[in-house]
Design a protein that fits this description.
alpha+beta, 5-stranded mixed beta sheet, two-stranded antiparallel ribbon, 6 helices, 38% helix, elongated
């Protein structure tokens, strides 16, 4: 049993299920250039179990890198949700509040004075995921094959590939 489960003490009568999940909140303005987009793609590739939500102010446009990624099928938008508002006490927290169904004073205030956001649930497209897996595999293979010392018949059981050694030495000298 994990420490999380051992430390979790809940009465049996209140809950019958506990779901644990992870998500990332991305605001439209967070992805302003190709470097930001590359970082987001890397996160999505390395953490496929994590949900990624992009929040866009209603009546605003997606930034160019996000729009191009969605149009180019780098991301798939699996769901679009309306009626999200920025929580007044937490900057990167968005809450779903239906107008006319507010239960707290702060909810009435944000629906009256706050700006509404749209939430896009995005996932990395299968095409992009396969492409990144191939690139990762090729990079690992290139690193593995760049070692100039090989275990094959030669002097004392080792041999040195002089071409690889020269490339390695040039790369070290350039740094």
């Amino acid at each position: 049993m994990t420490d999380f489960i051992k430390d979790l003490q809940l009465p049996d009568s209140v809950l019958s299920t506990v779901k644990r999940s992870e998500f990332r909140v991305i605001e439209n303005a967070d992805i302003s250039d190709d470097e930001d987009l590359r970082h987001l793609i890397e996160l999505m590739f390395n953490f496929p179990e994590c949900a990624f939500y992009v929040y866009l102010q209603r009546d605003a446009s997606l930034t160019q890198p996000l729009r191009e990624a969605m149009d180019g099928k780098v991301f798939n938008c699996t769901q679009t949700d309306l009626e999200f508002f920025r929580h007044p006490n937490f900057h990167c927290d968005f809450v779903k509040v239906r107008r006319g169904q507010e239960r707290f004073d702060w909810q009435r205030e944000v629906t009256a004075n706050g700006k509404e956001f749209v939430r896009f649930t995005i996932v990395l497209s299968e095409w992009k995921r396969r492409k990144l897996e191939v690139e990762q595999h090729l990079e690992a293979h290139a690193q593995r094959s760049s070692n100039p010392i090989e275990m094959k018949p030669g002097f004392a059981g080792f041999s040195i590939d002089l071409k690889k050694l020269w490339k390695l030495a040039k790369a070290k000298l350039r740094r």
